[in-house]
Amino acid sequence: MLDRTKRISVYQPTQLGLKFPELPEFQTHAQDRQHRKERLVAACRAFAQQGFDYGFAGHLTVRDPEHPALYWTNPMCVDFSQVKVSNLILVDHDGKVREGEYAVNRAGFVLHAAVHEQHPDIIAMCHAHTVYGTAFAALGKKLEPITQDAAAFYEDHVVIGEEAGQVAVEVKGGNRVANAFKGVKAAIHQNHGLLTASRHSIDSAAFWFIALERCCRQQLMIDATGIAPKLVSPERARYSREHVGSDYIGWLHFQTIYGMLVQTQPDMLE
């Protein structure tokens, strides 16, 4: 399994005293929980800005720090742009809402509960019905290392052919998806769409979902030319993945998004 939490030295500041994002540290579970909930809401707002909303489809989850068998998620039938800390719901692996006023998305429960239960190391997960990701998923193939951005997913994503195109509302379907997430951060579910997971934070899971959608769009554009692209070599693709594809780098990327959202959408923290 890749080491996803280590800091990548090439992105650390070379001078002391300069502003640079620092990984948070918490004294209590309550502090950690509040932080995770705020970042989950920010991820939902970021998905809204990216145009990832599609009715009630799409669900983002983060594991509770004190009660790891429970996870926080966005409420059913609330647009990503309207998700707030106050309307998040806490759900168990049986799909029962333990805290909050809203129902849980059945498909979200089936997929996310299975992944969280089968992989205790996974902290957060994202899924949405995006335009380019869903279109690319219909091809049933992996991304090629056509750019440095795409190389971040080199040998770090899988294609799930099982249950292709079928609505995931049965537990067995969720378990099949969960089986695919051993040691990778992303999956392309054939005829369905994209999923990402993080062993680090919701920040990382959300950014890599945004990045994966972008890479799918680039791949489709290149495929449309009919010209075979020049690929990054396996050796260089692995090097890029290690330096720009880690959970820490995903977290670092998301800090730019979070800072912007805090300034422009302060209601999300209500």
Uncertain segments are: 1-8
Beginning-to-end CA distance, first to last residue: 38 Å
Radius of gyration (CA) equals 18 Å
**What's the number of extended β-strand segments?**
8
Largest β sheet strand count, sense and barrel closure: 8 strands, mixed
Helical stretch count?
A: 8
What is the CATH H-level superfamily?
A: Class II aldolase/adducin N-terminal domain
Q: Mind telling me which CATH architecture this is?
A: 3-Layer(aba) Sandwich
Strand order of the largest sheet: 4-3-2-1-5-8-7-6
Question: How would you describe the overall organization of this protein?
Answer:
By secondary structure, this protein is an alpha+beta fold. It has a single domain (27-269), classed as 3-Layer(aba) Sandwich (L-fuculose-1-phosphate Aldolase). It is 40% helix and 13% strand. It has eight helices and eight strands. A hairpin with a 4-residue loop joins strand 3 (89-92) and strand 4 (97-99). Helix 2 crosses helix 5.
What descriptive keywords fit this protein?
single chain; 270 residues; eight-stranded mixed sheet; L-fuculose-1-phosphate Aldolase; alpha+beta
Strand-helix topology:
Blueprint: H1 29-49, E1 59-63, E2 70-73, E3 89-92, E4 97-99, H2 106-118, E5 124-128, H3 131-137, H4 148-151, E6 157-160, H5 171-179, E7 186-189, E8 193-198, H6 202-225, H7 234-244, H8 247-264
Parallel strand pairs: 6-7
Antiparallel strand pairs: 1-2, 1-5, 2-3, 3-4, 5-8, 7-8
Summarize the structure.
This protein has 270 residues and is of the alpha+beta class.
